[in-house]
Amino acid sequence: MQIALALPGEGGQAGDGMIGFEGGGRRTTSRLLGGEFPPYRALLPGHAAAVGELATAPFSEAVKRVALVAERTSALRLAFTPGQVVLEAGTGDEAQAVEVLDASYEFLGDPDGEQPGAGQADAARFGPDGLEAAFNPQYLLDGLAAIDSDTARLSFTKPGKAVLITGKPGPDGGTDYRYLLMPIRLGTSPRTIPLVAPRQHPGWQPPRTSPAASVDACLAARRATGLRSDRRE
Fold first, then answer.
1. Residues forming beta bridges with residue 104, ordered by sequence position
2. CA 36 → CA 40, 41, 160, distances in Å?
3. Is the pLDDT of residue 26 over 80?
4. What is the phi-psi region of residue 223: left when phi exceeds 0, alpha when psi lies from -120 to 50, beta otherwise?
5. Which stretch, 65-74, 78-87, 91-100, 220-229, has highest mean pLDDT?
6. Could you count the other beta carbons within 10 Å of the beta carbon of residue 31?
7. In whole angstroms, what is the distance from residue 40 CA to residue 43 CA?
8. HSE toward the beta carbon, residue 80, CA cutoff 13 A
9. What's the number of CA atoms in the CB half-sphere (13 Å) around residue 4?
10. What is the DSSP annotation of 24-69?
């Protein structure tokens, strides 16, 4: 394949740059976009505090099954402990689903030497005994499909921080693809406020009308609909 690149301003010509690809008897060109590429490398965590590993295919299938009971904006919760991971979705009166898979979990320690703050809703635990985090199930599935590996590795840094999803490291310790996924803060999903009938509302009071007025109103309604009344006028 041959690649030709024309940068803006070359040859005294103004306008956007172009790039062309030619190979296999086909040729295509595309316009180059201006601006700076986002500094994505600064978002990738350098050191992990905890790592969970499990088989990619069973993990993906379990996420699909558990996510069936989750609302569109609901989170899928993962709880890693040494030897297993628990997938859970749905709470309260909603439909619930739970699955348990074999997984390895290793706590490496916080590289900054900081301890997770008390009361954080992002993770109920984050330590040697395990951790909990929640994710959008569709975003999680997208990452598992992209790593192209039979083993999925989830690297955690701190509760509430981005999680790095990669495949099994190669002999040199590197990976071909890295997927950055932000967790969902537990307890911040929008609540559904039930509609309460007026009579059931705590502040509802019946209208104040006199008995005579109520009877006269009933008679007027009966006359309008052609119903007979036994009341003597």
1. 53
2. 11, 14, 28
3. yes
4. alpha
5. 78-87
6. 10
7. 5
8. 23
9. 9
10. TTEEEEEEPPPSPPP-GGGGS-SS-SEEEEEEHHHHHHHHHHHGGG
What interhelical angle do 56-66 and 137-146 show, nearest 10?
160
- Residue 23 to residues 1, 4, 12: CA-CA distances in angstroms? 4, 12, 29
pLDDT in tens, 110-119: 655 555 444 4
Judged by DSSP in three states, 11 sits in helix
Q: Calculate the alpha carbon distances from 43 to 15, 37, 47 in Å.
A: 33, 13, 12
| Residue 155 · residue 51 · CB < 8 Å | yes
Give the start-to-end residue ranges of the domains of the chain.
2-35, 41-181
What are the Cα distances from residue 12, in Å, to 7, 8, 9, 18, 126? Answer: 11, 9, 6, 14, 59
Cα(65)–Cα(96) distance, rounded to whole angstroms? 11
Does the predicted TM-score (pTM) go above 0.70? no
d(CA 91, CA 109): 31
Whether pLDDT at 198 is above 60: no
| pLDDT tens-digit series, residues 139-196 | 999 999 999 899 999 999 988 889 999 998 877 777 888 999 999 987 544 333 333 3
In the CATH scheme, what is the homologous superfamily, with its name and number, of domain 41-181? DNA Polymerase III, subunit A, domain 2 (3.10.150.10)
Cα distances (angstroms) measured from residue 131 to each of 26, 78, 97, 106, 125 = 52, 8, 19, 10, 5
